[in-house]
Write a structure and sequence with these properties.
two-stranded parallel ribbon; alpha/beta; Rossmann fold; six-stranded parallel sheet
């Protein structure tokens, strides 16, 4: 790569942001802004921050990701997930710089039998998915050079996520019931960060693919039950206690927000346009867990 970059990353302590900070640290200056420096619940405040920093690239790794909580606070969810990305995109377009934003499988209703591709019509089931879709639409309206990367089932060794929750509960309890009819690809935040770096390098080397919406998840598929089984197997291998797992349907575990049953995303377009492919979800999980030991 050529000259070092000044990269503005919104979000400081989230799973993807922390992974990005590790993956991108040698590309130049990372200006990482958390809630204290950048309040995404007040979208218009973003403009002066971006204009002051004058970055070469903006990555929005912040979001309102509490899916069930979003049902009871839609105004906050839309401010953070819809309005703020639009403002970032407008400022990036004005500066003539790229903007990278992360979206979600929740923009789809899960009714399709095959994996979802980028041309499928979104139909979110709840506030979270609706707010993320509105964010995508705001970015598209702003124009410019943007990448909207839809991912799914994100986990890491930090924060609150399925991997860490399962590790704890599997060792604390004798039996666990886990939803088995929701299918998708658990995606390590490290995979997202590594892929983002590859995309940045392609752009910085003057060989970008087409800008737009792309799917970025690990390859392969499983259910939440299958994911829990894989986590449990690693606990057993390490000589740790592990609960017995029992599969249940989604309707046996009601939540405020409805989840899509099919969250599989077809990521082949990212490979075709940008030459970036994703690892198998299970291999990525093992790579993640290796950093825990």
């Amino acid at each position: 790569m050529s000259a070092p970059l000044r990269i503005l990353i919104s979000g400081q302590h989230g799973q993807v942001s922390q992974a990005l900070q590790q993956s991108l640290k040698d590309l130049g200056e990372l200006v990482v802004l958390g809630r204290d420096q950048l309040d995404l619940s007040q979208p218009e405040s973003i403009r002066q921050v971006v204009r002051r920093i004058k970055p070469d690239l903006i990555i929005n790794a912040a979001a309102h990701t509490a899916v069930d909580q979003a049902e009871s606070e839609p105004d906050l969810a839309f401010a953070i997930n819809a309005k703020s990305p639009g403002v970032f995109a407008e400022e990036a377009a004005a500066l003539g710089i790229p903007f990278i934003h992360y979206s979600t499988d929740y923009v789809f209703d899960g009714s399709k039998d095959e994996a979802w591709n980028e041309t499928d019509t979104p139909n979110p089931l709840g506030v979270y998915g609706s707010s993320k879709l509105a964010g995508e639409q705001a970015i598209k309206a702003a124009g410019g050079q943007y990448l909207i990367l839809r991912t799914s089932w994100v986990y890491s060794l930090t924060g609150r996520n399925f991997l860490l929750t399962m590790q704890r509960l599997l060792q604390e309890r004798e039996k666990l019931t886990i939803v088995a009819d929701q299918i998708g690809a658990p995606t390590w935040a490290g995979t997202i960060a590594q892929s983002t770096r590859a995309l940045i390098e392609r752009w910085h080397d003057g060989k970008p693919g087409a800008w737009g919406v792309y799917h970025l998840t690990a390859s392969g598929q499983t259910s939440w039950f299958g994911f829990a089984q894989a986590i449990g197997r690693e606990l057993t291998k390490a000589g740790k206690p592990c609960a017995t797992l029992e599969p249940i349907p989604s309707n046996a575990y009601p939540t405020p927000a409805t989840r899509p049953l099919n969250s599989r995303l077809d990521c082949s377009r990212l490979q075709r346009e940008w030459g970036v492919s994703q690892p198998d979800w299970h291999n990525a999980m093992l790579e993640c867990l290796a950093q825990q030991r």
